[in-house]
Amino acid sequence: LPLQFGDFAVWEEQWLQREVFPAQLEFWRRQLAGAPALIQLPTDHPRPAVASPRGDYVSVSLPVEKLLALQTLSRQEGATTFMTFLALSQVLLWRYTGQTDIVIGTAAAGRDRPELQKLVGFFVNMLALRLEIDGQWSFRELLRRVKAAALETYANQDLPFERLVQELQPVRSAGYNPVFQ
Would you state the torsion angle of the CA atoms of residues 123, 124, 130, 131, taken in this order, to the nearest 10 degrees? Predict the structure, then answer.
């Protein structure tokens, strides 16, 4: 391949410094100013002092008709199905925690340039989607707001997450991840 991962890493660092870094850093500073450090999920046991790499997952199957209804709603609102599920996740987190200001982490593929499509390497960047919810909104209104927040966040996805954490210097704890959990 004419381009290797190391070439990309050098190019990305130079490009960030010249063109993207100042504007995107300012966006993220504004976006995350005053954001809650933790999401207070009720659990049946206390959070450990040090986070463990052990995890689990729950597989959920949706009936086809429900998935089709969600896809139809997404199309009607000009949103992606991902945005609709993000809005549903926010409602669920709001109901469990009572928090109206929630930062959710999501991954961006990082392969938005044609020359990166065939390149072997890890390009994924984590993004912090800050979403606020008001119990008075309809779900469609929430979805519109989630869509706007997601589009704005993805427009500012080039700043590597680890670099963002270095710059913001949030209060750190071994018990949870910085910025979002």
Answer: 130
**Number of residues that this document lists for the chain:** 181
Place of tokens 């910085």: 178
Burial bucket for residue 142 (CB in 10 Å: 0-12, 13-18, 19+):
buried
Q: b/e map of 116-127 (b: 16 or more CB within 10 Å)?
A: eeebeeeeebbb
Residue carrying the six token digits 């070439």: 7
Mean pLDDT in runs of 10 for the chain (181 residues)? 75 76 91 90 77 82 95 97 95 93 90 72 87 92 96 91 91 85 81
The count of C-alpha atoms lying within 13 angstroms of the C-alpha of 126, restricted to the half-sphere facing its C-beta, is: 14
Single-letter residue type at 24: Q
DSSP conformation class of 113: S
> Do the bridges between strand 125-132 and strand 101-108 make them parallel or antiparallel, or are there none, so unpaired?
antiparallel
Q: What is the rounded CA–CA span in Å between residue 34 and residue 31?
A: 9
Q: Give CA–CA dist 12/108, Å, rounded.
A: 16
Q: Do 16 and 166 meet the contact criterion of CB atoms below 8 Å apart?
A: no
The first and second tokens of residue 79, run together, are 């949103």
Helix, strand, coil percentages in the chain from 3-state DSSP, rounded to 5 = 45, 10, 45
Cβ neighbours around 137 below 10 Å, total: 14
